[in-house]
Amino acid sequence: MLVDTHCHLYEYGDEVPEVLERAREVGVVYVVAVSDDYESSVKSIELGKRYDSVLPLIGIHPWCCRYVSASEVAKLRELVEKFRDYVRGIGEVGLDKRFGRRYFDRQLEIFTEVLKLAHDHGLPLSIHCIKCEKLTLDLLRKFDIDIAVFHWYQGSLKVLEEIVELGYYISVNPSITYSRRSILVAKHAPLRNLLVESDSPYHFREISSEPATVALVVEKLAKLRNQSIDLIKEVLYWNSLRIFLR
Ligand SMILES: [Zn+2]
Hints:
The chain has an eight-stranded parallel beta sheet. Helices cover 45% and strands 19% of the residues. The longest helix is centred in the middle third of the chain and has 21 residues, at 101-121. It has one domain: Metal-dependent hydrolases (TIM Barrel, Alpha-Beta Barrel), CATH 3.20.20. By secondary structure, it is of the alpha/beta class. The radius of gyration is 17 Å and the shape is globular. Strand 6 (148-151), helix 6 (157-165) and strand 7 form a beta-alpha-beta unit. 48% of the residues are buried. It contains nine helices and ten strands. It binds zinc ion. Zinc ion binds next to loops.
C-alpha cells in the first residue's frame, strides 16, 4: 500500500475522480492533498469530505505570500476550527529564500502565524523550504512543533541529520530519477524518516507527475537503496499514517 504524501489535488478540477482511480489501481490508498491559499484550502477540505482516500491539508504556499497578508492565517484558523474532523495538517507552507527581501519578510510573518496554528491544534506540517533549512528548523523548535515533513528536501546531508535527530521527516518525489541532490538524500535518509510524494501536477523533466507516480518513485528508491520494494512500501506506509492519520 502506498501513500502520496504531497499532492496539489485540487488543481485537477473535474479530473480528480480519474486521477484517484489511476492511483488506486497501483496501490495508492491515501493522497495527502495540500493547499496553496485560502480558496484552495476550502477546495481541499471539500475533496476530503467527498473521498475517504483524500487527507486534506490547509495552508498558504510561500510563493503565494506575494498577494496574501498574514491576516489570511486567521481565516485558516477558522477553517481548522470548523472542519477539525477533516483537516489532517498544515501545508504547503514554509520559506523560500529565492525571493527578494520584501517577500521573504512577508513569508516569515505568515509562516510564524502558521506555526502557532499548527502548535495550537497539534497538526503536522508539510513544509516547502528552499535555502533556509537552518532558520526553518530553529522556528520549528521555537514553536515546539512535534511533526513536520520537509517536502522535496534539497538541503545538505548535515541538516538532514538534524532533521532526523529531531524526529522530523523528508519526502522524495520523481526528482530522484535525475537530480544528484535528490538521489543523495534518498540514499542517506533513514527509512524511518522517509516518505514519498508526487508533488503533482508537476512536470519532472519527462515525467508528468500524478498520485499514481509514487509507485515509480518507490521502485526507484528500492534500486537506489538496494532494499526490497515491499520493505520500503511497508515502512513508508506506516510513517505516513503516523503523521497524517493520528
Ligand atoms: Zn507542492
